[in-house]
Specification:
GMP Synthetase, Chain A, domain 3; alpha/beta; single chain; 7-stranded mixed beta sheet; 20 helices; 5-stranded parallel beta sheet; binds adenosine-5'-monophosphate-propyl ester; globular; Rossmann fold; 648 residues
Amino acid sequence: MTSAIVSVSKESRLFDPPAEFSVRAKIGSREVYEGMYRRSIEDPDGFWGEVAAELYWFDPPKTVRQWDPPKARWFEGGTTNLAYNCLDRHVTAGAGEKRALVFEGEPGDIRTFTYAELLRETCRTANALRRLGVSAGDRVVIYMGMVPEAAIAMLACARIGAIHSVIFGGFAADAVRDRVNDAGAKLIITQDGAWRRGKVVPLKEQVDRALTSCPSVEHTIVLRRTHNEIVMQPGRDHEWSVVVDRASDQCDAVPVTSEHPLFILYTSGTTGKPKGVLHTTGGYMVGTYVTTKYVFDLRDDDIYWCTADVGWVTGHSYIVYGPLANRATALMYEGAPNYPEPDRFWDVIARHKVTVFYTAPTAIRAFIRWGDAHPRRHDMSSLRLLGSVGEPINPEAWMWYRDVIGGGRCPIVDTWWQTETGAIMMAPLPGAIATKPGSCTLPFFGVVPKIVRHDGSDAEPNEGGYLVIEQPWPSMLRTVWGDDERFRQTYFSRFPGRYFTGDGARRDNDGYFWVMGRVDDVVNVAGHRLGTAEIESVLVAHPNVAEAAVVGRPDELKGQALVAFVTLKADVNATDELREQLADHVAAEIGKFARPDAIRFADALPKTRSGKIMRRLLGELASGQAPKGDTTTLEDISVLAALRDDDE
Ligand code: PRX
């Protein structure tokens, strides 16, 4: 991490917010944004205290923020409940009949839940959890596909103060087992299978495999969705249709303290062990509520659709908690974007009259590849706002999104944030801030981002550097589950007192931020953030592998693709068959989305004298560049030459 970060972007297009958008927007001008931003920095207690007061507290907070880096505490003295704020608050206010969730399954089935119905289902599920012995502070793993019951399960945990940990349904048994064990989960909520491109993803089967070595798990609840055959273990496994559907639909929300843990979400870091990012109740609630309100500029009649999976933080914050806290109507779609045809998303938008659409650059690049004819076939005039999240969006994809999907009339909010930040940190407020293709523009209220050099000094405008955040914000992670030291080390040791994002970025002459991507050993494949170390440790666990290094290389479609450099044990032959086997092995252990795109065999890996693999060199090789920069620390220069000769 010592090399300078060089930015090559020359983008200079600027798009003002459309006048007709600004007129109706919650924040309709740059001046209003600036006034509110200034206040949020100069008087954070006043600003955040007022936002918090828009939500329901059983006991109001006594203080707003306490900052003893790296530990932040928000809204102390307050007691609240996030499920209450997402459901009961609206029902009590007379909005029980408003649609909360509109679900469309991949096979085409549609189910709608009003706020009153979602409240009842949440209560039933909460009662079922209680009957199976779950109480406040217990961990519950939710390993499901994109079905409304996943959101209901999350809300049910929040309602009784249990801590949920959602595991993305694309993960396989080993990844599930590690996360369940790290969290010490007592119960798993899953389903027989999930629909994906017309096929069944057998979730329960993976749970069964994982549970052979998860001693903390006492029970599972299994929803029937795909009706594939599964094995139910009596006493341990319970049918959703029995324990939930037959439970009472009355269950009071438990008042919890503001800093009561809400959820753990595992994310990749630079070591093989996933990090359990811990979010707590009050700050996360306030952060997701207020960002949804202003960034998506929600109106009462919006049909809001975020295409993320609930297994990632975007699904937590911007399918479930943020939209519901704002009394929005959120759409949830179960399946693949190209099933049965590549126009499925546009068909959904046209039929449901979606007004706000939030997706990822990797999806946008796939749409471009599939061709304009698909979106052009559908009437998407209901759309008024578009969003992007998960990785840097290249200006061409941004322009296509604006023209072809947005019909040239919808502002685009490019939202930069992370699992750790809980909520959006930088984004243009759509009625107030002019946009530039590829820039997430300016910070949200209360956020103080800085670009610094490796010695911590401020970078000049347009000088690439490390992105850090200077002040605490309500929805920031509180720790790494069970590992305060790792929390401090990972986020607050590189630049003491400041939160280090792990991203490289620059700020242009107008003060706009351009995030360039990760500077650590984390790659972003199709919007999935993967720690290369986790993949390496799976490769090394294979009996034929001696050593492995995984790096990312730029990929037109996925943003980054994974390339694994592997040295084999003596006497093992490097064959194409073995290459396939190793790729399959990674897919089976971690999940298909982590399958390396290329595996390159090497006699040795380039290392420093202290034995550290020089990934930077491998990254350059994998990208087809000649290794440049400093090779003086390389222990054996011939290794590099051999790898280059081996170039595909
Ligand atoms: O590198 C940044 C990239 O995704 C990382 C966070 O990944 P994750 O925790 O999985 O959360 C994804 C959804 C919030 C960041 O460190 N990233 C996310 N959004 C953007 C982005 N990079 C550039 N522009 C964005 N809008």
